[in-house]
Amino acid sequence: MGKGKVYLVGAGPGDPGLLTLRAKELLEQAEVVIYDYLANVEFLKYAPPEAERIYVGKKGGDHTLSQWEINDLLVKKGRDNIVVRLKGGDPFVFGRGGEEAQVLVTAGIPFEVVPGITAAIAVPAYAGIPLSHRDHTASMAFVTGHEREDAEDSKIEWEKLAMGVGTLVFFMGVKNLPQICRNLIENGRAPDTPVAVIRWGTTPDQKTVTGTLETIVEAVRQAGLKPPAITVVGGVVQLRNELNWFENRPLFGRRIVVTRAREQASDFKSILSKLGAHCIEFPTIEIQPPFSWEPLDNAISRLSTYDWAIFTSVNGVKFFMERLWAAGHDVRELKGVRLATIGPKTSEALEKFGLRPDLVPTEYRAESVLEGLAGEDLAGKRFLMPRALVARDILPRTLCEKGAQVDVVPAYQTVLPEHRSEEILDRLRRSEIHCVTFTSSSTVANFFSLFQREEILPLLRKTAVACIGPITAQTAEEHGLATDIMPSEYTIEGLVQSIRSYFESKGKP
User: Fold this and answer.
1) A Gene Ontology MF term for this entry (predicted)?
2) Distance between CA atoms of 24 and 22, rounded to whole angstroms?
């Protein structure tokens, strides 16, 4: 018998925050991940880099693999590998998990089932629709919107369902919505019964259309609503007007491009997402070590000779501390060296090592460091600046003009990552992007290096451009791009607040 095992894992309805801890734990151990169309691909990041990833998505008749082929794949991979079969929602709620488990039993392959949050409860909740409510219903039922194609007779008892259950939730029923409504009305359900159809529920692309059994088909047609969608029938749908929390968030429906380096984008993306934005990651910077550690290592070996160390970014702190540790030292080597930082995040990075900066200018740019040192006699003072390989020269140049000795050493470098530039172009052409964000001059310059200027500029003029501060905005202007959004405080938090204020003034999309 092989060493393999298959885990039938529910990935939840789409919101990354609804993945269970057990599902994440198993993904981290997986040797093979076999995933569906409705399983959020973001979860694949939890799997080890060497894990095999196999997409077997099925949508609207377009099947990558048939169910029989998926069953064979599970048996083949499950004999000798730890397999995570990642399924949208819950594997045992209209997810064919039971069928796949039976195949594994027949093949003698061990398996476990990891329940997921089913779309039946999560999607209505995100649309502001409680499935149960004492003033409306005492019962609910989950029903498939389409039965297996080879079934001769329907297993749905419409007469009992129509009049015997308060709230009905239909899975994947957009295509058959006319028949569903007709069957319910013909079997006694009132034509004015409230109905909601929710597409891509729990995700930033969620869209909800409401009506009645009599009007919902036309409403869905006019809205152009396509699968995947959940349909809710019953008086509880009326509560959406009062309880619609998810779609009422300030940035809901706004698609925002995040050009920040992937290593640094998580906080920015997280804050925007909590406000309802659909964040499209398009990092124009990748952080890498410099070509050689020798200049930084040499500077660290003579730290006691410096009067000041100036850190201009979180990355500068990160790589400096890593090399300090690699040299067999710790922060005690900085005794007697005064510390300056640009920006609160850089200060926080130092403080995590128990170091308190001596100078944190109120304005987060290089020129403000010079203002903070205005009362100092800089002649003969020695400054160390661990920073990016390529950066603005105004600070070291001005310090040298004032008689200081400045060692600028590369602690890291920024490079262009591989990109799917065509995807961004397509979205811009279809007016699907509401805002493009830039958090440094490098993100602007690198962004423009990925496109033909004459093609991208007209498209960007149709969307809002957000820059974190005046230096970044100046770089954007040099590339022919006007800035629509810029915070007074040049931080990620300030930028998010400015984006929020801008779109709140525009109203709902």
Assistant:
1) uroporphyrinogen-III synthase activity
2) 5
